[in-house]
Amino acid sequence: MADDAGEVGVFSPVTLSCGRVLQNRLVKVALYEHLADFHGGPPNTHHFSLYSKWAQYDWGMVLTGNVQVSKTHLSLGRDVVIPQELSDESLQPFKQWAESMRGSGESGTLKLIQLSHGGRQSVNFIGGRPLFQPPFSPGSIPVKAKRPGWFTDALHSFAFQTPVPMTLEDIDEVVEAFVRGARVASEAGFDGVQLHAAHGYLLAQFISPLSNNRTDDYSAHQNKALRLLHRIAVAIRKAVPQDFVLGIKINSADYASSDQPNSEERVLDHLRTIAAWGGIDFVEVSGGDYEKPDFVSVGSPRQALFARFSKAAMETLESVKSVTPSAPLPLILLTGGLRTPELLHTVLASRHAHLLGIGRSSVLCPDLPHILKQRELAGTLRSEPGWSSPFRREPDLSAWATIRKYLPFIPLLGAGVNVAWHNVAMRRLANTPSPIKGMEGVLNPEHALGPIGVLFWMWVWVDVTPARAASPAYLAAVDRGSTVGRCLRIMGNIGVTVPQDPGPNSSTMIMPLYLKTISPV
């Protein structure tokens, strides 16, 4: 695991315990794409196009958005889903996805699938289940409102069913589903998987007493809380090649609650336990903003815990190493607010992490590794402007803070305008020709969208890109500014598809209602 003595830079290679090498410390972490078919499906051409953008700029590692192992426990409806049966046909889209992520560097970009299960957070209507069929969860504790009130509580009751406690057979099936996901990744040509044990999804639900009221061997008791995660990790290791990368994501915010005493000790103990297992190549820790440790002063339990945890995680690994010197320990991947070159340097120089997780900034700046490398070679990396400035212009969504005061907050559905903005930006990026030219100009239209606009366009979109060569008349018709183009988009917004090339003499542009939307504008 450990870095060699001396200063570690952004472009220092590092070796995982499985033997695979990252060519640099920059990791494009998982971001939900919202690009798959409604009610879930395989990756499509838009995923391929989007991830090819990151691949061509030599990131050390690129993770996909959360891929669901259960088609009946989706998050926001347009999730990529692991197939039930492995065949040449079902694996083909995943092979194309892996191929689109092939890097150009000497070692190549490592490409991983993030595996997830929605559990009780799988929403009614868009979660992949029949209407009002409850989801599975460790116990029968429903998702609760963070800001209680009769209206918010009513919305939560409508959006989230009280979950059904999982039987031991259900738990066995979940283990098998995650293993199947790892096999799909391996056989499709991915270099590994990350287990999503954060953000309140199923694996995190087993860990937290706020969602797990079981009293058996899968309870949230400190000595049992990680049992399901451990079973999955061990089973995956047995099912994949030795050099297959296996990572885990945990979130300090999942532990930050006034209902849980000793939150910091609990999360660090879990990290220590995971490290002692062996066979885990990296642990991603997130849950706050590394840039703003002073935010603790305003009394945020989440930020306070993250500020301490992000600095204590490495010390925790060192304590494991002192007890078992020969144990192959995981690397720490830190995600949260790393949006300037100065912060990247600070994290590595302070030894707060081995790897640098870049999330939303990777959408704004997919060519970040090349930009930093060019500036380093030119000797201008630490020069101003740029050293302490964001990699690229960030969206100004300050108006959302005012609007949110008057709206009920629903987890996932009300996840935030920032999430929506970057979803729309990823959609735009997917449709940007390669190589990228004038990226700032490409994203400028999204900068102009307000909070309501980005929320609208995240959820409402239609494919008007022809699958085959379209006539000039058709291309003119679907122009965003044209009346016909607006009509086509409205039709798509309500679930009506349009012909790929109606031609100049077509008398109608309306086709039957459909359930399968495959691409965004």
Automatic annotation (TrEMBL):
InterPro entries reported for this sequence: Aldolase_TIM (IPR013785), NADH_flavin_oxidoreductase (IPR051799), OxRdtase_FMN_N (IPR001155)
One Pfam family from the record: Oxidored_FMN
Entry keyword Transcription: no
Keywords, sorted A to Z: Flavoprotein, FMN, Oxidoreductase
Superkingdom of this protein's organism: Eukaryota
Domain NADH:flavin oxidoreductase/NADH oxidase N-terminal stretches: 10-374
Molecular function terms from GO: FMN binding; oxidoreductase activity
Annotated TM spans: none
Flavoprotein is among the record's keywords: yes
Annotated SUPFAM superfamilies: FMN-linked oxidoreductases
Family statement drawn from the similarity comment of this UniProt entry: Belongs to the NADH:flavin oxidoreductase/NADH oxidase family.
PANTHER family attached to this UniProt entry: BINDING OXIDOREDUCTASE, PUTATIVE (AFU_ORTHOLOGUE AFUA_2G08260)-RELATED (PTHR43656:SF2)
Name this protein carries in UniProt: NADH:flavin oxidoreductase / NADH oxidase family protein
Organism: Lyophyllum shimeji (Hon-shimeji)
